[in-house]
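Materials and Methods. Structural model of ABC transporter permease. The 308-residue sequence of ABC transporter permease from Colwellia echini was retrieved and submitted for structure prediction as follows.
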Amino acid sequence: MDLDLITNILYATIRTGTPLLLVALGEMVCEKSGVLNLGQEGMMLLGAVAGFIAMYHCDSLFIGFAVAALTGVLISLLFGFIALNLNASQVATGLALTIFGTGLSAFLGADYEGKTVEALPELALGALKDIPLIGKPLFAQDAIVYFSWVLVVVVYLFFKHHRGGLAIRAAGENPEVGSSLGLPVMRIRYLAVMFGGACAGLAGGYLSMAYTPLWTENMTAGRGWIALALVVFASWRIERVMLGAYLFGFASIMHLVAQGLGLSIDSNLLAMLPYVATLVVLVMLSKDKERLKLFEPMSLAKPWHRNN
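The predicted structure was written out as tokens:
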């Protein structure tokens, strides 16, 4: 395996893992507040189609990504109202949101199927991109990749050093006690849900305007579900979320790696790898439920209302 091939594999791994990182990071914050949102796939698709349509008509990547993120926020508010205010099952609401988002995105994007837009350009950081092996993967990415890295650092520092991070954890561990201490639990949970929605919408926009700058129905291909498994795999730890996103990203490009190595393996089998990896991870985690409970927020997916 030559140096150029390894460099291209690392480069593609980061690009492929970026939407997973964004969705998983948003869902992790959401779950730390005690809310389980299974609607990530639907929010990604709606963010992808809304951002693409905005970019197609306005010819502005900034507007496209802003619309994608805003769409995710608006859909997350719908989830929040049903799951938090009406105390509906968070699992059922999230599943309904995915079904709704999948159908609505297909309807809205019907007239844009197969159309393309100008892809998000790379931001090559001068001579750094010419460093052997790591130059292209680290210093020749697009703005959303760099933004995802900044977001990881910000979220990490927020939970480690800011009172707001402690408030989110309190809302996720014991909302009743948090409320009795004066914490606005419902507001905290809403903000966490909105953050998760913005990240999901942005990830969808990344797929339709940067990764593959075109719109196709169901283009997320299960990435929202993989991100949900990734949060559990990472034990709700930010640094593990980032590592896991790139591991799953690498699994997603194995068919390209096989082609580069000249291996005669059916590409359809290799395309199954990220989903097989997801199942394997879930099976492995299910064998150690006690350890998993040490990291899982105690009130995750449990309805709560101040008047209860």
